[in-house]
## 1
Amino acid sequence: MSKAVEILGLTKWYGDILAVDHLNLEVKEGEIFGFLGPNGAGKTTTIKMLTGLVKPSEGTAKIFGFEISKEARDAKRNMGIVWEESNIYPELSAWENLMFSGEIYHVGKKERQARGVDLLKKFGLYDRRNDKVGGFSKGMKRRVAISMALMNRPRLLFLDEPTTGLDVQSSIVIREAIREENKNGTTVFLTTHNLEEANLMCDRVAIINKGKIITIGSPENLKRTMVKAQSILVSFGISNQQIGEDLTKIIAVNKVMKEGDKFRLFTEDPPTVLESVWEFARKKGLKIISINTVGPSLEDVFLFLTGAGHGG
């Protein structure tokens, strides 16, 4: 399988600020790759270097083998880009925006029109194709922007925070359309700080924090490796402070958090803690209303890896 993106030692300084710190990364052709991290982690700066908008301070980046700093034209022919801030023209209709984008990408008229119809239907916009985009909701505008970036059938699509701040319907439509494009061969490089987005969409994710990649793997494998982020969720029907304090004394419990009327006990040894909680309830005369083991969420993984997690 060929490499859609290949990064070696990619670095960006802004004065004394190190925004991206010697990144090494490969994205395989055909995958949906998530670039996950908080705001200010270096995600957008990395994308700007990969797309030729910002010159790296050090290192190299290749798109399908073309080095972006030396072979920009060939690299850019293979990509489509959707920034968080849409690049649509509000005074034009949805159809006119797509046709204009197709012309910029040198897509022939017949193919441009066929592709435009296909994309507008796929993104649920065909019935509004003749309406000016300026009157669209934020979610509809984002759908138009992604459609524009797909007009030339790019081999690689960069999506910067594609569903941030959007309504549920638009988010669902966008995810389904992106999955379909991916099945048809488009590699997707998705930046987000939305953990659920990465979990739902991505084959692999890289977690970046303060300009450095701290781990790479599939969402499920990342969660599986985070033994310390496992937990027991228990409800006794009452949830006073004293119970929480007493639960911290149970062997193998690393941390206790109160969540509504429940207590969440973080542990590396769920079977032992389950047994101990039942014994705890018996001794205290408490009735267990519900008790469940909970695997680590992607959010738990992120917090743990960035040093702010429940497991220390």
Note: Residues 195 and 298 are 6 Å apart (CA to CA).
## 2
Amino acid sequence: MGSAIEVINLTKQYTNVLAVDRINFEVEEGEVFGFLGPNGAGKTTTIRILTGLTKPSGGEARIFGHDIHREAITAKSYMGIVPEESNVYHDLSAWDNMMFTGELYHISRAERERRAIELLEMFGLYDRRDEKVRGFSKGMKRRLTISMALISNPRLLFLDEPTAGLDVQSTLIIKSVIREQNKRGVTVFLTTHNIEEANVTCDRVAIINRGRIAAIDRPENLKRTIQSAQSVGVAFDKMQLVVVKDLEGIPSVNEVRKEGDKYRLYTEDPPMVLAGTWDYARVHNLRIISLNTMGPSLEDVFVRLTGIAVMPKEGGT
């Protein structure tokens, strides 16, 4: 298969800001491609260029071989776009939103009705198809937005933070549909702040920082680039008795992070830390509920490559 997206020396210069700095990457047809970056990294600008909303200052962006600006109509005909904020019409019903979107894509009435029924059922919205969207929850509006983006049977689906702030049911439905669409051959370009979502969803991930691509690879390959970020995860039966400073004193521990009801002890020598953790538990009369070694996470890669500040260490119990 060929490339769904080709980005060649893409640049965007605003008055005093170089938002995108000569970036290059390709998205293969049929893959789920994650695009990650901290706020202000150039992520949104890149997406706006790829979807034809912003003109680049230099370079090229091609969608299935068609330049997004010189051949905009053809390039856009391949796309379904789900913006970060749901773009539904609140005073229309879910059904009318679907019909209106189908008309914009010049889909015949019979075909758009068939697709609307299929998609609204898929997203659990068919029983409420005649209700005005104004009364829908955020998750329902998000599901409808994705339904609208899929009505044209796009070959390429842009998803900008599709599950941000949603309820569990909507998140699970959306993730399931993304997987199903990809199985059918749809290429997915996904931006997300949820690094774990990218880790379990994407075939490859690009990390952009300060307008430049810091890395592109499969999540597992990215993790292998920073083997020094190994860690030991531990949970104790009495959290209130655990003092982070004491955990930091275990031999070979470089850093300690509290993650929910667990602690993550970063180290270059996991066996030494495992032994020290057992000693710590015995001395403080604690029972270990879970204990395991962990390799670097995609979050560790993201932090290392972007240099973003992490939360301050816990200083108390």
Note: The longest strand covers residues 3-13.
